[in-house]
Amino acid sequence: MPGRVTPLEMAPADFRRVGHELVDRIADFLGTLRERPLTSGETPTDIRNLLGRGPLPATGTAPAALLAETATLLFDHSLFNGHPRFMGYITSSAAPLGALADLLAASVNPNVGGWELSPMASEIEAQTVRWVAELVGYPADGGGLLVSGGNGANFVCFLAGRRAMLGESARTAGLPQGRGALRVYTSGAAHTWIQKACDLFGLGTDAIRWIPTDDAQRMRADLLRAQIREDLACGDRPIMVVGTAGSVSTGAVDPIRELAEICREHQLWLHVDGAYGAPAAVLPGVPDDLHALALADSLAVDPHKWLYAPIEAGCALVREPRLLREAFSYTPAYYRFDTEGEEPPINYYELGPQNSRGFRALKVWLGLRQAGREGYVRMIGDDCRLAEALYGQVAAHPELEAATLGLSIATFRYVPADLRGVASAEPYLNALNEALLARLKLGGELFVTNAVLDGRFLLRACIVNFRTTDADVAMIPEIVATAGRLVDAELRPGDGRPERSEGLPHPRSSSARQDPSPPRSLPSSAAKGPGSG
Ligand SMILES: Cc1ncc(COP(=O)(O)O)c(C=O)c1O
Question: What DSSP element (H or E) covers 373?
């Protein structure tokens, strides 16, 4: 019986031809990534003009022409986080097999909200969750699911903790009123998701107690303890401590063991944000607290960061599987999914905020099988080794100043030779490095982002990139110094550079300090050098 003729259906022969053409172009794209400029550096207006500003098309276009045009738009006008010298934020180069996984996932299109709608996909997700837990040293018999990313994973864990600490009434009657403020504790180095979570989930950001950090940007456990006691004494309700295993700015790992001890003492929920750093738990030489993740009641891990899965893929892990169902499950009459049997099916819509869910797990599962634990130990180990090499090369460069090294993140800044050790130059150095960062981002050779530490604006390279080599790292100090000199010359053009009037010595003046050692303004932690993270 002939099928319906519709504009979206494709005959297998057409799909094959168009698909092969696309795969060929993607293969060429992947093969030329290293030679391409990292970013097109275009403006929103440039891109909108390219895309056209026309209305919704009235009639359709043939798929081959559409895909060819769209592939060109993306290959020629994008920023490539798969480029070997992309080291910004914490976004990994994506495993090519992951791209094929998304093609396969979209082709079968299972709805991983209900088991009966996705038998194999649901089981692959369950296995992926167990394997991610195993890889990072978290109990594999806990609960968990794949979500949109680090924010999503932390939100799910936060909500599981909120339900566990406040009981069912938090879901029915809402958050308790008038019995002392609910308190959540985290460090100043925590990622901003915690603000969104407290805002979106009804606690309000005032509930957050920002605990100071030590020289290594780790939460001060002694101050946490004191704050909890103080809050209890004035009738507040501490419910959760949020530790970070690999902070976004410097890769710092909080004292997880001490936090777990404090949470046990006060019966609090311990959540660990391991979106970035948890996979580094596979390495022996990392901070020992990364080997204590199993002490957490919940843990967030981001496969689209250091497991090199294409965006988007986050993973929420909770020690007690039932706590996810208690936090998220509703079973309306129109959802009659089977839940019985010796090995009952998992219906993931009951374990998280989504109802219909895509098959995110496939790209993660295939990556884990393609590389195996050994492969991840090697890739993650190499990323850390390369960051350490970068830190060393930056520290040795006369115009660069190394700041911190933690996991695979190195921070540093450009300091013109005549301003090294000049305390009054700090405001100028911040402005210079901020302008330098903007220049580097558009330059197309290197993509780094920033960190702000003790008031200093720093450049920050985070290596979660299996394409980065020693040669790439070796290029970075000179790429940065060359751009730094240019920007400095523009900001301090020849004689009469404006900053001079603010008491900065003239470069050629005898009072300019020539002291090569790291300037005093650096906090003691940086002085410790590699591994201080
Ligand atoms: C420590 C940490 N937590 C959470 C997030 C948020 O992750 P995502 O961007 O995947 O939502 C990030 C992102 O960089 C992060 O570094």
Answer: helix 361-396
Say yes or no: 129 and 269 in one domain: yes
**What CATH number should be reported for the domain holding residue 137?**
3.40.640.10
Question: 393 and 295, same structural domain?
Answer: no
Question: Structural domain of residue 300, as residue ranges?
Answer: 115-167+178-358
- Read off the CATH number of the domain in which 89 is found: 3.90.1150.170
DSSP class of 514: -
pLDDT (average), residues 130-152: 98
- Please name the residue whose Cα sits nearest to atom 14 of ligand 1: 90
User: What's the mean pLDDT in 86-105?
Assistant: 98
As for how many domains the chain has, the answer is 2
Q: What are phi and psi of 452, to 5 degrees?
A: -120, 120
Question: How much distance in Å is there from the Cα of 77 to the middle of ligand 1?
Answer: 25
Closest atom, ligand 1, to C-alpha of 246: 1
Q: Is the dihedral of CA 468, 472, 473, 477 positive or negative?
A: negative
Q: Are residues 391 and 525 in the same domain?
A: yes
Question: Distance between CA 91 and CA 114 in Å, rounded?
Answer: 30
- Alpha-carbon distance values, 419 to 177, 416, 510 (Å): 55, 5, 13
The residue whose C-alpha atom lies closest to atom 6 belonging to ligand 1 is 150
CA diameter of the chain: 93
Cα-to-centroid distance, 478 and ligand 1 (Å): 30
pLDDT per residue as tens digits for the range 229-264: 999 999 999 999 999 999 999 999 999 999 999 999
Q: From CA 444, how far away is CA 479, in angstroms rounded?
A: 11
Positions of E strands within 376-455: 400-406, 409-414, 449-453
Q: Please check whether residues 212 and 314 belong to one and the same domain.
A: yes
Per-residue pLDDT reduced to its tens digit, 289-329: 999 999 999 999 999 999 999 999 999 999 999 999 999 99
Tens of pLDDT, residue by residue over 402-417, are 999 999 999 999 999 9
For ligand 1, atom 9, name the residue with the nearest CA. Answer: 150
Compute, in angstroms, the gap from residue 149 CA to the centroid of ligand 1: 7
Buried b (16+ CB within 10 A) or exposed e, 230-255: ebeeeebebbbbbbbbbbbbbbbbbb
Say whether both 263 and 148 belong to one domain: yes
**Is the Cβ–Cβ distance between 458 and 452 less than 8 Å?**
yes
How far is residue 390's CA from residue 464's CA, in Å, rounded to a whole number?
14
- Reading phi first (left if > 0) and then psi (alpha if -120 to 50, else beta), residue 504 is in beta
Half-sphere exposure of 417 (CA within 13 A, CB side): 10
CB 275 within 8 A of CB 153: yes
Instruction: Based on the fold, state whether residues 250 and 302 are members of the same structural domain.
Output: yes
